[in-house]
Amino acid sequence: MTFVGPLSSTDVAGVVGVSMMLGAYAAAQLGRLDPVRTPSLLLNLVGSCLVLLSLTTKFNLAAFLMEASWAAVALFGLVRVVIRRRRGR
């Protein structure tokens, strides 16, 4: 792979998304972020959606499947958070 020219806006979105997901993972590993709470889940959901956006110009099936699954798991976690909050009231 060779890099030629400036990054496209979708490339930037993908890099930001990967940074968000890796940041959330690192923070969880360092004990600074609970992986099953809203902030971590949102970072993972938004990050994976940004990576999916980057795949609209340079599609890769394996990356698409990984990021779509990552987004689905994060969304599932967020739904669980909402359900637990509603039951708690």
Could you give a short description of this structure?
The chain has helices at 9-29, 38-54, 61-88. With 89 residues, it is mainly alpha-helical. Helix 1 (9-29) packs antiparallel against helix 2.
Fold and architecture overview:
This protein is mainly alpha-helical and 89 residues long. It is 74% helix and 0% strand. The chain contains 3 helices and no strands. It has helices spanning 9-29, 38-54, 61-88. Helix 1 (9-29) packs antiparallel against helix 2 (38-54) and helix 2 runs antiparallel to helix 3 (61-88). The longest helix has 28 residues, at 61-88. The mean pLDDT is 95.
> How big a fraction of the residues is strand?
under 5%
Order of helices and strands: HHH
Count of helix runs:
3
Helix content: over 70%
Low-pLDDT ranges: none
Query: How many strands appear in the DSSP assignment?
Result: 0
Computed CA radius of gyration, to the nearest angstrom:
15 Å
Summarize the topology.
Layout (H helix, E strand, L loop, with lengths): L8 H21 L8 H17 L6 H28 L1
Defining traits:
89 residues; mainly alpha; 74% helix
